[in-house]
Specification:
Blueprint (H helix, E strand, L loop, with lengths): L1 E7 L8 H10 L5 E7 L15 E3 L7 H13 L4 E4 L7 H9 L3 E5 L6 H9 L2 E4 L4 H5 L9 E3 L21 E6 L8 H8 L6 E6 L4 H13 L6 E3 L8 H5 L4 E4 L8 H8 L4 E4 L4 H5 L6 E4 L2 H13 L1 H18 L2 H16 L2
Parallel strand pairs: 1-2, 1-4, 2-3, 4-5, 5-6, 6-7, 8-9, 8-11, 9-10, 11-12, 12-13
């Protein structure tokens, strides 16, 4: 039996929680015993995580005392592998694993990089990256390139699947799912909306940064777009397929992304996707226009949206190809199997 400890900042705000939960629920319990540790909000754990698997270190993260406390927990629970889903660059967990003699692996999800990330990578036993361009961008150094593995995220295609679309409206609906914030760059979509037919509607879903939303609202009011734009708040993961069913197209205008889950979810749900050229992940997912197109400017986004509005057959082709690409290359089963093999190699059992 291999004891695996997953670490995550918390289950209140961390975006990686859905990927972690997907792995946790599907690990073969005849081979693995998973635990989950949170840095903050230990009172908030999803019901799927059994009470005896829930872990927390009371020492403050960032203090040296945390290293010792973390190492003691690893020994007490006889942990064989630690897998971090922390988005930060600090090396506290890696140092604790060194002290306890436990292999440490982290998954690189974003495009941030610094000397701190390099040090964390040096201290790690292994590194997983989910965007193919990251290998050359971050891990080409001699000391790193031999301990990295590419494992893209996977989706449960029995959950994320096409649902019957609501065709009762005469509007063309553009959907956008993600944090309402500067990096997601929703303002670009609103600028494009001004150049689209009156029947075009935009639906935003996601947690909202108040300052950035105020900027969007000011733009909407200035250009009299109030009746064409709606803010619908956070959408639960299990409700995303239903929401996607109301979209004619999904748009992601981000400035910087790793491997965008929203694109994968749109493709799996049979929704055409238009994405900015943000960090390489979108190019990888939409390779050969399988599921959608990449845009590099506002004018190109407008042109692509007009094409999809005018030609249902193009939308249908993109939707079918996108679904097929996810089923063949990005299933949750493939992701779980890849991580399972990695854990066995690291634990040497």
């Amino acid at each position: 039996m291999i004891n695996v400890l997953y670490t995550i900042p918390n289950f209140k705000t961390a975006g990686s929680q859905f990927v972690l939960l997907a792995l946790y629920k599907r690990l073969d319990r005849s081979l693995f015993h998973p635990f989950v540790l949170v840095e903050k909000f230990p009172e908030i754990f999803p019901d799927e995580i059994e009470p005896d698997a829930r872990q927390h270190v009371s020492e403050e993260v960032g203090k040296w005392s945390y290293v010792g406390a973390f190492a003691r927990l690893l020994k007490a629970k006889k942990i064989d592998v630690v897998h971090s889903w922390d988005y930060k660059s600090n090396s506290i967990e890696a140092l604790a694993c060194h002290r306890a003699g436990v292999p440490y692996v982290y998954t690189k999800k974003n495009n941030a990089w610094s000397k701190r990330w390099f040090v964390k990578s040096l201290l790690s036993t292994h590194i997983v990256y989910n965007n193919p361009e990251m290998k050359e961008r971050f891990f080409s150094h001699t000391l790193l390139k031999r301990k990295v593995t590419f494992i893209p995220h996977g989706l449960d295609t029995s959950v994320f699947k096409p649902l019957e679309q609501n065709d009762s409206t005469s509007h063309f609906t553009i959907g956008c799912i993600g944090v309402i914030g500067d990096n997601k760059n929703q303002l670009l979509l609103l600028k494009a909306l001004r150049k689209l037919p009156e029947a075009t509607r935009v639906q935003f879903y996601g947690k909202e940064d108040a300052t950035y939303k105020a900027k969007l609202v000011a733009f909407i009011e200035k250009y009299q777009l109030t009746n064409r734009v709606s803010f619908n708040g956070f959408v639960a993961n299990q409700d995303i397929p239903k929401v996607m069913g109301n979209f004619d197209v999904l748009v992601l205008a981000s400035k910087n992304e790793g491997l965008p889950l929203s694109i994968m979810e749109g493709m799996a749900c049979g929704v055409p996707v238009l994405s900015s050229n943000s960090g390489g992940g979108a190019r990888f997912l939409l390779k050969d226009d399988a599921g959608g197109f990449i845009f590099t400017s506002e004018s190109e986004l407008v042109s692509q949206l007009l094409q999809l509005m005018e030609d249902r057959s193009v939308r249908a082709t993109l939707a079918a190809k996108g679904r097929e690409r996810i089923e063949e290359n990005f299933s949750i089963t493939k992701e779980v199997n890849a991580y399972s093999e990695l854990y066995k190699q690291l634990a040497k059992k």
